[in-house]
Input
Amino acid sequence: MSAAILFILLFLFMLMGIPIAISLGLSSVITIMAFADDSLASLADKVFHTMHHSTLMAIPFFVLASAFLTTGGVARRMIRFAVDAVGWLKGGLGMASVLACMLFAAVSGSSPATVVAIGSIVIVGMVKQGYPQPFAAGLICNAGTLGILIPPSIVMVVYAAATEVSVGRMFMAGVIPGLLMGLLLMLAIYFAARRRNLPAEPFAGWSELSKSATNASWGLFLIVIIMGGIYGGIFTPTEAAAVSAVYAGFIAVFVYRDIKIKEVPKVLVDAAKVTTMLMFIIANAFLFAHVLTTERIPQLIAETIIAWGLAPWAFLIVVNILLLIAGNFMEPSAILLIMAPILFPIAMQLGIDPIHLGIIMVVNMEIGMIT
Output
């Protein structure tokens, strides 16, 4: 009964147009006050201690790094390098846009930041070259979602915090799927370009390619710092996030000089706003998950599904359908924090690897972000 009330309230508030974070928190508080013995003080204490999770400390640092990279000229230099590298192929500017999104995703950890940084530059260029505007916009929306699959990824950090799995293992597991999805998208663009007779850029030459690679190298080196530092045992994922924020600020201000010293406070404030929004959503989603756990909803669902004799592959299909539906209405971090406590115990009992489940959930979050 309490579970039904919880979800009915959540969807009712969402239909009323109340922001998702407030809908999650309000439905949780009403359900607890009506059906549980917890006090409001204990709820506040629960939220406070939840936000002290060490894994979540990586989020503000990745957001800050993304803010420096987006505001600075890192994205522009990556785009130039990508155009010189693959722009000479049929549909080259579209393929270069995907490559630039993949490179920026590997340093930002955020899909919205990737779409803003790359899309604000390349969509205009593609339209000028004869690409249909819906095609160009759809391309960037799809390629931009790689920001949460190619490590580092803020969404992977959230999943790791919700399920207590290794952030480093999640990052490693996202590399090959991210590269495959990017390459398949580029292949699809190539065939679409041949069918639509879209133009190709003239090859800039090896010297120009070398020059653009050198100009982009400071930003690209951040990939080496993050991934090499984590898997080389130099620092933890949270420490890697802090190092990436400092490094991104350094190259934006002192190397590329796209950001003046007096503009740094504005970048910090913008990053703080995004972090506050994300953490507010996460805090309320954790509260919602707490209510589910208190009412033993995950355990009851797990017992029911196992009693059905559902095979692991069939369960994963159900997971995909649930997440695709949820992705139409909710933000990825909130979906993960609500669904992970429900799906994770079932997956463990069915023998599904938690990292495998995590990547499936992240890929579904990508599709959800597009819708």
Summary: Residues 56-275 form one domain. The chain has a mean pLDDT of 82. The radius of gyration is 22 Å.
